[in-house]
Every structure is written in structure tokens, then in C-alpha cells.
């Protein structure tokens, strides 16, 4: 469905697509809690929580196809890499990549088995834009670097706190922690504190907005730059996801669990709740240049 490139994608109890102010349509019959999303030209990929695995929706097929096997169950994060099935998946026990066997089924290899338990527990993945074989991994132990496609591992300076959000914006890597606020890094190895909300609390998602950053926190949406306190925007809620429209930087969406789906069209000055959602865990904005 070509409109998906210009629609918002909402990971809730199933995957939904639509535009602000119009109806939202569920994609297929999948009703699992969606925790992570990828949108590619020929497919969608959805990671599901509560043991529901990893799924893809090839646009030509028009239905959900299973990507997980019996060893990959609860998927917390996904990112696009080369190859087939072309996904690196993060779960509560590993970073994993797959390959197809003779029957076409995907069999998964777990790359972080030599790490300790908290280092294996993956919350977020950010591919290095300069090197697709180098991955930043947000874990319960902090940020680790998977090099050469997970063949070698290195610990960054941001260690000793869970990292639940990673992104790349303004020529920097950004990380959101449980108890130390937001950090940024030029290389992914050495990190500098970049401020926090007055209420503290965990950072679950990060998005770029003009020269600033928007964060989904345990107390709601906050906005900041590189230091000091980040200002609160909108209602207090357990905010799990936030996204900014790439062509309309004043248009944001935020998701809470519980608390549902919210939108603003004036950069967070006023917010409106969108009916029909209770738990929202991940949001993808429309593709750039297609609005």
C-alpha cells in the first residue's frame, strides 16, 4: 500500500497507519503489542513484545509473515542491515541476526552470548551511518558497540545505567538513560551529558526537531538541546514513544502506555488526544518529502 510511505505508523495492539485528523487503519490481523518498527520501500518489519516475535509485511504479499524462530521471542528493538532477512533484532537476552535455511525459514544466531546478563538485555539499536557493520546497542548495562556485524564488542563510556533510547541527529549519537538524563557522542564511545528533565526519570525515546531534541520520558514529553533542564511539553504520562514529522517540524506525535496517542501541530504548545488507543509503544513518522 503506497500511502504507508506518507502515513504515520503506530505500534499498539497491532500496527496502525493513518494521518492526523483522519481514521486509523490496522495493518492485517496482527494484534500483538508492537514494540519496534522498520519501514523499507518493499516491506514493514515489526518487533512484538510478550513473546510474539518478529514479523514482516511485504507490500506485494499483503499479509504478515513470520520472521522469528523458537529462539527469538520477545523483540525489543530492530534495525536494518544488509542481507536477507536484513534485520538485526534486540531481545531481552541477545542481539541476533538471521539467515534463511533451505525451506526459506529464518534461523537466528545470537551474537552477544559472551556478555553478561545486563549487557545482553537490549532496549535500542542504532546503526552507525558511517559504517553499517557497526552498531550502537542500548542495554540494561549502558551503551555497547557491536563491531564487524557483532563479531567484536566494546564498552562505551556510558556504562552503569540502563539505556532505553538511541538515535542519530545533528551529526551526533544521542542516548536516553534511566537515571542520568540524555547524553550525546560524536563517535558512540565517549559520551557527554546533555541535560535532563526537572522530574528526572527514564528516557524511552528521542527525536530531532530543528536544532533541538524531543524526548519521551516517564513523566511525559520534554524538549531540550545539549545542557541544563529540558522543559516539559504537554500532559504528564508514561510516555514510551515520540516522533517528529520530517517535513513539518511543528507536528509531533507521542504515545503513552497507558495513556494512548497524542498529537501537536504547534511544537508542543497544545496537545490533542487521539481516540482509540490505550497502549502505544512505538511511532514512525511519514517519510521525508512525501507529505
CATH topology: Methylamine Dehydrogenase, Chain H
**What general outline do the C-alpha atoms trace?**
globular
SSE pattern, N- to C-terminal = EEEEEEEEEEEHEEEEEEEEEEEEEEEEEE
Assign the CATH architecture.
7 Propeller
Strand tally is 29
What level of helicity do the residues show? under 10%
Q: Report the top-level CATH class.
A: Mainly Beta
Query: What would you report as the Rg, rounded to the nearest angstrom?
Result: 18 Å
Corresponding CATH superfamily: YVTN repeat-like/Quinoprotein amine dehydrogenase
User: In the residues, how many domains can be counted?
Assistant: 1
Number of helices: 1
Distance between the amino and carboxyl termini: 15 Å
Biggest sheet features: 5 strands, mixed
Which class best fits the helix and strand makeup?
A: mainly beta
Q: Strands across the major sheet, in which order?
A: 20-24-23-22-21
Which consecutive residue ranges, at least 5 long each, have pLDDT under 50? Answer: none
Mean pLDDT over all positions: 94
Strand proportion: over 45%
Short description:
The radius of gyration is 18 Å and the shape is globular. It is mainly beta. The mean pLDDT is 94.
SSE layout:
Elements (H helix, E strand, L loop, with lengths): L7 E5 L1 E5 L6 E2 L7 E7 L2 E6 L4 E6 L6 E2 L8 E6 L6 E5 L3 E6 L5 E5 L6 H4 L1 E7 L2 E9 L2 E6 L4 E8 L3 E7 L2 E6 L4 E4 L6 E2 L2 E2 L5 E7 L2 E6 L2 E5 L4 E5 L5 E6 L7 E5 L3 E5 L7 E3 L7 E3 L7
Parallel strand pairs: 20-24
Antiparallel strand pairs: 1-2, 1-29, 2-3, 4-5, 5-6, 6-7, 8-9, 9-10, 10-11, 12-13, 13-14, 14-15, 16-17, 17-18, 18-19, 21-22, 22-23, 23-24, 25-26, 26-27, 27-28
Amino acid at each position: 500500500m503506497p500511502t504507508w510511505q506518507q502515513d504515520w505508523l503506530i505500534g499498539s495492539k497491532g500496527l496502525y497507519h493513518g494521518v492526523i485528523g483522519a481514521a486509523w487503519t490496522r495493518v492485517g490481523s496482527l494484534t500483538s503489542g508492537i514494540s519496534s518498527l522498520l519501514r523499507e520501500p518493499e516491506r514493514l518489519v515489526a518487533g512484538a513484545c510478550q513473546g510474539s516475535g518478529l514479523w514482516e509485511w511485504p507490500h506485494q504479499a499483503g499479509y504478515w509473515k513470520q520472521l522469528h524462530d523458537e529462539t527469538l521471542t520477545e523483540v525489543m528493538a530492530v534495525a536494518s542491515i544488509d542481507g536477507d532477512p536484513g534485520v538485526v533484532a534486540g531481545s531481552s537476552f541477545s542481539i541476533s541476526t538471521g539467515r534463511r535455511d533451505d525451506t526459506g525459514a529464518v534461523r537466528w544466531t545470537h551474537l552477544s552470548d559472551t556478555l553478561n546478563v545486563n549487557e545482553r538485555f537490549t532496549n535500542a539499536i542504532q546503526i552507525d551511518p558511517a559504517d553499517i557493520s557497526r552498531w550502537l546497542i542500548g542495554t540494561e548495562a549502558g551503551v555497547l558497540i557491536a563491531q564487524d556485524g557483532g563479531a567484536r564488542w566494546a564498552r562505551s563510556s556510558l556504562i552503569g545505567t540502563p539505556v532505553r533510547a538511541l538515535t542519530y541527529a545533528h551529526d551526533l549519537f544521542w542516548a536516553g538513560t534511566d537515571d542520568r538524563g540524555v547524553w550525546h557522542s560524536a563517535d558512540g564511545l565517549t559520551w557527554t551529558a546533555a541535560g535532563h528533565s526537572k522530574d528526572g526519570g527514564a528516557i524511552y525515546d528521542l527525536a530531532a526537531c530543528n536544532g533541538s531534541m524531543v524526548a519521551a520520558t516517564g513523566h511525559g514529553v520534554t524538549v531540550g538541546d545539549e545542557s541544563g533542564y529540558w522543559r516539559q511539553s504537554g500532559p504528564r504520562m508514561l510516555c514510551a514513544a515520540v516522533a517528529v514529522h520530517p517535513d513539518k517540524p511543528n507536528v509531533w506525535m507521542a504515545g503513552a502506555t497507558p495513556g494512548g496517542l497524542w498529537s501537536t501541530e504547534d511544537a508542543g504548545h497544545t496537545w490533542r488526544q487521539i481516540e482509540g488507543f490505550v497502549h502505544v509503544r512505538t511511532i514512525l513518522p511519514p517519510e521525508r518529502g512525501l507529505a
